[in-house]
Structure of HXXXD-type acyl-transferase family protein:
Amino acid sequence: MAHLWRAVTHASHLNLDQEIIYNIAVGLRQKLKPPLPKEYLGNALQGVHVKSTAGELLQHELGWAALHINKTIASLTAEQVMKVLEDWAKTPTVSSKLRENIPTSTTS
């Protein structure tokens, strides 16, 4: 993931002070307390945003980017996950991009 982030950033020729955000889907099975039961069928994912500037990302070695990604994922707490789930349960939404791809039935 870190290599891809750096390669895309390098190829994009961004200004060095340009903020870049790498969106990553994180598995939540181990983050939830208590964890989801093994029998749970389905995905348990949440997106996290790894942030840097183009200059900071490119001036450091690949290991720095990997560590930055790892620290961001590790910083996601069970409390944060539960807050997102509780907020979504109160006001469920589906991204408009997802909605565009949901088939709808039509009757003739």
